[in-house]
Amino acid sequence: MGAREAAPILVAGLRRLEYRGYDSAGIAVLDERRPGGIQRVRAAGKIAALADKLGVEEPTGRAGIGHTRWATHGRPCERNAHPHRGGSVCVVHNGIIENHAELRARLEEEEGRRLTSDTDTEVIAHLVDSHYGRLRAAALAQAGGEGARLVAAVQASLAELRGAYALALIHDDHPGTIVGARSASPLIVGVGEGGEAAELFLASDVAAILEHTRTVLDLEDGDVVHLDADAGLAIHDLAGQIVERPRRRVEWSPVAVEKQGFSHFMAKEIFEQPQAIRATTSGRLPRAGEDDLGRGEPSFPELAELDVPALAARAKVTMLACGTSWHAALAGKYLFEQLARVPVEVDLASEFRYRQPIVRPGDLAVAISQSGETADTRAALMEARRLGATGLAICNVVDSSIAREADRVLYTHAGPEISVASTKAFTTQLAMLTLLAVHLGRRTGALTLERAAGLLDGLRELPVALDAVLGQAAAIEIIARRWRSARDWLYLGRGLAFPVALEGALKLKEISYVHAEGYACGEIKHGPIALVDERVPVVVLALEGPGYHKTLASLEEVRARGGKIIALASAGDRRIGDLADDVILVPQVDPYLQPILASVPLQLLAYHLARLEGRDVDQPRNLAKSVTVE
Fold first, then answer.
1. Range of the domain at 122
2. Catalytic, out of 268, 316, 564, 625
3. Measured between alpha carbons, how far is 548 from 526 in angstroms, rounded to an integer?
4. How confident is the model at residue 623 (pLDDT cuts 50, 70, 90)?
5. What pairs with residue 96 in β-bridges?
6. In the annotation, is 525 catalytic?
7. Tell me: the pLDDT tens digits for 283-320?
8. Domain contains 426
9. Can you tell me the distance from the alpha carbon of 11 to that of 67, in angstroms, rounded to the nearest whole number?
10. Residue 127 and residue 102 share a domain
11. pTM of the prediction?
12. Where in the cell is it found (predicted)?
């Protein structure tokens, strides 16, 4: 909202948010110069389809809202696309309204309203319109003008909603006004560089507005924000009281959310991993030339008050995550238990709240999320803290919901990750968990100074090894071409390689739509070996270190049944070439650092297979980058 035409800004912002959902899209623009006020344009499919429709006649006006959808209620089609209209109100919404069915029934039966979509969102527009019509404009005008009437209607409507929402709405009778609200879904306010009298933005992600401003306010649950072209912005709580939210400066450059010459964001983000690891570890690692006492001590001032010996002796760590972050958490369990001798449970965040978990005061709950907005992970963290655990967040986005919910937060500094399939966020999570395991190991006495120093030196040198792996991208593409017709894949790993095998299989499933499963090596003979034949490639993580010879034994079991083997092996391994059909060699590093290094070839393999199949690599079907609904 500001002096410029809204439609082009909205469409550009939606393009930057398309990784959040791309089933359908739409905009609504409010122009006081036109009869009827709000003009709405919607289209099924990606933003390009919306842009084609807008090319015929673009709405005019300086205030508007837009949305790109990941379907929850109702199939992807134009009538289910946002914005939704109810009377004089148009709304866009992220989240899920759990009681939408009863609200719809009431609106239709008692008020005779006709709802035309299958979505939960449409009830919000009708509800606000209903409350607006019932409020006495004159009385409210005395308390703050017509804008107060619209805000009051929104607040009355929110009191009836159950579920999660981040919403923005406009009203035919209120040109130059946008009202937003949030509960359990992310929503930020962007303030134009000219201050509140200039441009104001609402967005679910900072990527949408980076080219216009880097000054943002993070709204809290229960906030209702009123953006007005003349009066600026005002934030209310649900009781109607004015509240203040601190402003922060976003350090990400707008260039960071561009492809910069790469064909896909995923490829760009894979190749950004050496720098992302440097950014994540550099502030934690001892300075080069540190004296003997400091060489093995990573810096974690955020955890100065954490009673680590008590954690090891009488409590436990519970790691909470979903998807790729859950694989990082599983690797974290190996790292914490082996390097620090601290007991760890790893929970799928989506299951944690519903199994009556045993959490006691003194426990540490570690929530891992790239976006910091994953609804299941946030809910699990809240439950763990309610039960008495200290909450620690590991995430990539500053001041995200999970970061604010936790007692302490560790940022991974991977930079913006646009591709739906996570790459650099995963490896920076592994790097942070390794650093944290070293820190805990020094606190518990399980890790000697020399051993800790060796691991930290290895982390410092790891970006060079990652560059060497990335240098094999062309060779990995050749392997992908050889096996592109395979419809089923198996991934095998032992110890710390097991979570990497799970992640490698997930990457292939996500972006190529090919069936793939990851297993611990020892489990192959307990069922999955029945799937093995000459048509099933088996990716075996056969890196030298603990368990190497047992991994080779599993590899031999696959060979004996005609399986075709792609081996990921350590440089200098002279045996593997005789055992595998294809070999990808990675530099030798400390076994505890191998998960970071081994992840990259599997990302490249999945990327090339998906690209060869003509898949939409950055926006695979049915998926969204940040799952902000349960």
1. 6-256
2. 625
3. 20
4. confident
5. 164
6. no
7. 899 876 555 656 889 999 999 989 888 888 888 999 99
8. yes
9. 9
10. yes
11. 0.82
12. Cytoplasm
